[in-house]
UniProtKB/TrEMBL annotation:
GO terms for cellular component: plasma membrane. InterPro entries: AAA+_ATPase, ABC_AA/LPS_Transport, ABC_transporter-like_ATP-bd, BCA_ABC_TP_C, P-loop_NTPase. The keyword Nucleotide-binding applies. This is ABC transporter ATP-binding protein. GO terms for molecular function: ATP binding; ATP hydrolysis activity. The keyword ATP-binding applies. It comes from Phreatobacter cathodiphilus. It comes from the Bacteria. Keywords: ATP-binding, Nucleotide-binding, Transport. PROSITE patterns: ABC_TRANSPORTER_2 (PS50893). Pfam families: ABC_tran, BCA_ABC_TP_C.
């Protein structure tokens, strides 16, 4: 099967600094790939390049075999690249429910004919309700997004991405800043997406236990370069990962020493 998403020699320079350096990698439908590496390795920048938030200095991004390198973020979102942001990206003065409904509506518009738009208003609300329930936010449907605590904002971002019904789901440290009891909600959701078997899921995550339990494959970035790529157990045990994580996640390193 051809990959859904692929990068070829993807590179971006910020002045003299090469943040993503010739990364070639392909992602397939029905798989969850964890992208790991120390802080500053280029993980978020790699996501920004694939989702079109940043334009590459050189190299290509392909979606379903088409070169989408010239497309911006909106065009790529339209083509099915979904991104839950590390930095909050909501309509703060709209309610939680409205934020998700707008996403469902945007998705509906992309798919629907003009005639069907009228009849689908109810569907958008139903869809928004469905995704709110999935992230456990039904109870705050009528709260302004701006008033949500941090963890709920992160959950709302995930609901918005789901309502856009993308082909590719990109999660950049989705549980960062969440309280312990909120984390399983997001992880269960990602697990459910994965169980669907048709989505292409990319996950940047620091917690190695989470990576181990969710990933089919681990890609390691270090200094902007792809330095390891393979089965989780194999990659976690590799010297390059232990080196990359020294001082970063000593527990993960110790664990692989047995
Ligand atoms: N817009 C930017 N301008 C200049 N440097 C940047 C920019 N975005 C990221 N960087 C640099 O690129 C490197 C990779 O950053 P990032 O992708 O955020 O790493 P990670 O997500 O792996 O922690 C860092 O050195 C960071 O300072
Ligand atoms: Mg990052």
């Amino acid at each position: 099967m051809p990959p859904v998403l692929e990068t070829r020699d993807l590179t971006i320079r910020f002045g003299g600094h090469v943040a993503v350096d010739g990364v070639s990698c392909a992602f397939h439908a029905g798989t969850l790939t964890a992208i790991v590496g120390p802080n500053g390795a280029g993980k978020t920048t790699y996501f920004n390049l694939m989702s079109g938030q940043l334009a590459a200095t050189s190299g290509q991004t392909l979606l379903d075999g088409d070169d989408i390198s010239a497309l911006g973020a909106a065009g790529r979102a339209q083509r099915g690249i979904g991104r839950a942001f590390q930095i909050t990206n909501l309509f703060p003065n709209l309610t939680v429910g409205e934020n998700v409904r707008l996403a469902a509506q945007a998705r509906g518009r992309a798919k629907a004919s003009l005639l069907s738009l009228w009849s689908s208003h109810r569907d958008w609300i139903a869809k928004a309700d469905h995704y709110l329930e999935e992230v456990n936010l039904s109870g705050v449907r009528d709260t302004l997004a701006a008033a949500l605590p941090h963890g709920d904002k992160r959950k709302l971002e995930v609901a918005i991405m789901m309502a856009l019904e993308p082909q590719v789901f990109m999660f950049d440290e989705p549980t960062a800043g969440m309280s312990v009891d909120e984390v399983p909600v997001i992880l269960d959701l990602i697990r459910k997406l994965k169980a669907d078997g048709t989505k292409t899921i990319l996950l940047v995550e620091h917690k190695m236990d989470v990576v181990r339990s969710l990933a089919d494959r681990i890609v390691v970035l270090h200094n902007g370069r792809l330095v390891a790529d393979g089965e989780p157990a194999e990659v976690i045990a590799s010297p390059v990962v232990q080196e990359a994580y020294l001082g970063q996640a000593p527990k993960a390193v110790e664990a692989t020493h047995g």
